[in-house]
Design brief:
single chain; about 260 residues; Rossmann fold; N-(1-d-carboxylethyl)-l-norvaline Dehydrogenase, domain 2; 2 domains; 8 helices; 8 strands
């Protein structure tokens, strides 16, 4: 019997949805789903055999662990409004310090899945790195074991290092996806499907992953200092001033890196 056999999930968004389903499939009892929007709580609760509540005053005090998978700004607010002292209170955010939970429960921690997570795309949590932090070092094994139910890749990491990990993730995932979206828009204007980019995207990723240092495999006009191509492409973006600024700024960064 795992130490945390009864879990209350606070949240109904992307991370809450996927973690609730993953824990449920591993045999963990999901007691309740809390969301400020009852319909959202009910939709998630129906899939994991839980009760849906839309008020913190309705939380079941018999849970072993209360898992906060809410927006970063909501974490301290909800923690302060809990109607009783939880045995364990854990948040899942990359950029929120564990100190935001100080004094709010008998045991506090962070369980951060380092992956882009969407509500309708099921992640393979077994391959997702989880980064764990606890306020009391004596609690580390308990939370590490809990994370191990979900993933084979569980690591200790404090709040300061996790902040930098999250920042790196924004660059390699969120920003890159935004550039994908810009590329898709440019292709659409030429009547081309985004699928023509997939082989390029895959090869770029493979080279970066295999190199261990993506700077070593940088290609393109900026890395070879082809100023004629750069100037022409800047002109092509004259009708898209925001994209033109992005192109110019990133190009200057690559030129400095490869000077």
């Amino acid at each position: 019997m795992p130490m945390f056999s009864k879990v209350v999930v606070l949240g109904s968004g992307n991370v809450a949805t996927q973690l609730a389903h993953a824990l449920y499939q591993k045999g963990i009892k999901i007691l309740q789903i809390y969301s400020r929007t009852l319909a959202a709580a009910q939709k998630l609760a129906a899939g994991v055999g839980a009760e849906a509540v839309d008020s913190l005053s309705l939380l079941d005090p018999s849970g072993d662990l209360y898992l906060m998978a809410v927006t970063d700004t909501a974490i301290p607010e909800i923690a302060r409004q809990l109607p009783f002292r939880c045995p364990w209170l854990v948040h899942t955010a990359g950029s929120v310090s564990i100190r935001e939970l100080n004094g709010m429960a008998d045991h506090t921690g962070v369980l951060y899945p380092f992956q882009t997570i969407s509500k309708y795309r099921i992640p393979d949590f077994g391959q997702v790195p989880f980064f764990v932090e606890v306020a009391d070092p004596a609690d580390m094994k308990n939370l590490m074991d809990f994370a191990g139910i979900l993933s084979a890749h569980v690591y200790e990491m404090n709040s300061e290092r996790r902040l930098r990990l999250h920042l790196a993730g924004v660059f390699v995932s969120n920003f890159v996806n935004h550039f994908y979206a810009i590329g898709a828009s440019l292709l659409e204007k030429e009547g081309l499907p985004f699928s023509v980019m997939v082989p390029l995207m895959e090869e770029t990723f493979r080279k970066a992953a295999e190199s261990g240092n993506p700077a070593l495999v940088q290609t393109g006009p900026a890395s070879r200092r082809d100023m004629a191509v750069i100037e022409n492409q800047i002109l092509q973006l004259k009708d898209y001033p925001d994209w033109q600024k992005l192109y110019t700024f990133v190009t200057e960064s690559i030129l400095k890196e490869h000077s």
